[in-house]
Specification:
- With 171 residues, the chain is α+β, with helices and mostly antiparallel strands.
- The protein has a domain of 111 residues: Aminopeptidase (3-Layer(aba) Sandwich).
- 28% of the residues lie in helices and 32% in strands.
- It is built from five helices and eight strands.
- The strands form two sheets. Strands 1-2-3-4-5 form a five-stranded antiparallel β-sheet, with helices on both faces.
- The longest helix is centred in the middle third of the chain and has 15 residues.
- The chain is globular, with a radius of gyration of 15 Å.
- The protein starts with 11 loop residues before the first strand and ends in an 11-residue tail after the last strand.
Length: 171
């Protein structure tokens, strides 16, 4: 898979350097290791069903039409984010390993993907968020105006990622 995402300068995480990299096929083993360290609950919240995540990761590495980033602490992959082109939209998905959640890693991955989307002229991204994960809406609100629907306990969030006149391009 060839990707054209150029991540910004790495952000700092507590006590360690976070590096954001474009996904490459040689990262498959590291991604599978990261998914293997995720709890069933974390995987359920990301995939909205019972899965070990390995089929998704294998598909992600082999797929075209997706732009994906990985987050690293040293030599350890700790997260992955994808902007996948569907028939009508660009769908967002982010997974961060349990021990690294709530440290800004998902937000940093989101920020990088939004910058990519804006550079490519993408106007809107879509994310499905479980109702109990409504805290995710706060991060998405910082990206741009939202249109949110709730059906069967799942928010479908449409985010306008076009910069607002008079504001910087970054979220």
């Amino acid at each position: 898979m060839t990707t054209s995402i150029k991540p910004p300068i790495p952000a700092q995480t507590p006590a360690r350097q976070l590096q954001i990299r474009a996904l490459s096929p040689d990262q498959l083993r590291d991604l599978l290791g990261m998914v293997g360290r995720c709890s069933p609950s974390t995987l359920f919240h990301r995939f909205h069903g019972i899965t070990d995540g390995t089929a998704y990761i294998r598909h992600l590495v082999a797929a075209s039409g997706h732009e994906s980033l990985t987050a690293w602490s040293g030599t350890r992959c700790i997260g992955v984010a994808t902007l996948a082109r569907s028939a009508c939209d660009h769908e967002l998905g982010i997974l961060v390993e349990d021990g690294w959640q709530r440290r800004g890693i998902g937000t940093e991955l989101l920020t990088c993907l939004v910058a990519f989307a804006r550079a490519r002229g993408i106007d809107r991204i879509v994310a499905d968020v479980l109702g109990e994960d409504s805290f995710v809406l706060s991060a998405l609100r910082r990206v741009g105006p939202l249109v949110v629907t709730l059906e069967s306990g799942v928010y479908t969030v449409r985010v306008n990622v076009r910069p607002v006149l008079g504001e910087p391009d970054a979220p």
